[in-house]
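Task card 7
Instruction: Convert sequence to structure tokens.
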Amino acid sequence: MATSTHAHNESVTVKGARFRGEETKPSFKTTELVVYVLAVIGVLIASYTVGDGDANNGADYFAADKAWWYITLLTIGYMISRGLAKAGSRSSDVDPRTH
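Output:
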């Protein structure tokens, strides 16, 4: 007869354990967000610094409305990119802050 040294109240149920998985990494952990933010900053800086050149006629070659149009296009592209990423595979992220 074999005797067990473990207490009888120890029960581990693996069958009922489910892990909550995230579809993708959180957006702040991706290079997509970094590239998006840098592109927006680049557009804003370019719009601010590009003027009328040496003409001094007050014409602005890269006006604010063009800059915001490009930022809108960048935002749409970023949103499509995140949507496609979320439609893809699941992440094996173990960071407790994301649960």
